[in-house]
Amino acid sequence: xxxxxxxxxxxxxxxxxxxxxxxxxxxxxxxxxxxxxxxxxxxxxxxxxxxxxxxxxxxxxxxxxxxxxxxxxxxxxxxxxxxxxxxxxxxxxx
Length: 94
Prior knowledge:
By secondary structure, the chain is an all-alpha fold. It has helices at residues 4-23, 28-35, 39-47, 54-64, 68-71. The mean pLDDT is 90.
């Protein structure tokens, strides 16, 4: 993206969506389903790699049960964690 202010703004939205989603204990897949969005599109939103519409912003806010203004606050994306998260161990199984 050549427009730096826009890229910074989209990264703020991305950071807020990811932060709220993780605090709610939702996977990307679960949030995409709740918001009626394609998983790959949500992944691009969370990377700050796509210019989302107000309709999508509102759908994400409703799916996360937060006011849309919360997603517009200035924030920074944490470094990306590559790969899948480790599987949770189930008690009583080896």
